[in-house]
Each structure stands twice: as C-alpha cells, then as structure tokens.
Amino acid sequence: MSEILWSDRKRWTFFALPFTFTKYSMSEDRFFISRGFLNKSEDEVRLYRITDVSLKRSFGQRIFGLGTILVSSGDKTLRDFEIKNIKNSKDVKEQLSELVDKQRDAKRVSGREFIDGPDEFDEV
User: Which residues lie below 8 Å from residue 90, measured CB to CB, with a gap of 6+?
Assistant: First the structure.
C-alpha cells in the first residue's frame, strides 16, 4: 500500500470538532473515504480519474478554519463527491490538484477520455 500523504476527519461546522465517523486520506495515487461506525463503507478513487477540484467555504466554515472541497471524477461508483469540513482546506485542495496533475501525466490521461454522451455537434 502507498504511503498516506494526508488524512483528516470530517468535522462539525461549529467548533471544528472531529466527532464524526467519516475519515479522508490521500496517497500519491489514490483518495480514500471511510464512513461509518457499526456499518463501515470504504471508497477509493484513483487520482488520475479526477477531472476538477474546487473549494467552497461558508461563513461558518471560515470562522472555524474549515472548508469543503468539491471533486468531480470519472469514477463509476463515486462520481462527484465532497470532502466536507476539513482543516487547511485550501492547502489540501492545492496538494490534491498537484497530485492529480502528476498522476494524469504519469498515466498519459487527457480530459477527453472522461467525456460522456454525444456532443451537440454529433447529432444529425
């Protein structure tokens, strides 16, 4: 297994306390989401499948130093997902973006490989 470069828990928006059962972690080539206490589920997405990353920070999140990263991916099970209420969200977003670019270059993947459905110009 790859070395974990970053990990955090989803936090409550107020007081930034990590009293949830959602954990996020990131290695050099994959992003992991673990949810649950009694019934656990684990998801992972290969970083080269991520197509877009953006940051959203509400007023409450800014007060407590949190943010939510919105991720669009070509993964069939996760699709688009959020990395909710994490500390240092801006730094994590930048780290994720850099690793995504690095993995896409290493795998020689371009954005057009994830486009679904016909183009408006393909219809006759």
Answer: 55, 67
Closest listed residue to residue 31, CA positions, set 70, 55, 5: 5
CATH of the domain at 66: 2.30.29.30
Residues paired with residue 71 on neighbouring β-strands, in sequence order: 53, 81
- Residue-wise pLDDT for 70-100, tens only, equals 999 998 888 999 999 999 999 999 999 999 9
C-alpha triplet 4, 105, 98: angle, nearest 5°? 45
pTM exceeding the 0.90 threshold for the entire prediction: no
Structural domain tally of the chain? 1
The tokens for 57 are 């920070």
Q: Is residue 68 part of a domain?
A: yes
The encoded tokens of residue 104 equal: 């896409």
Range of the domain at 25: 4-107
3-state SS, residue 99? helix
Residue 123 resides in a domain: no
Residue 27 has pLDDT above 60, yes or no: yes
Kindly state the tokens that stand for 16: 């930034």
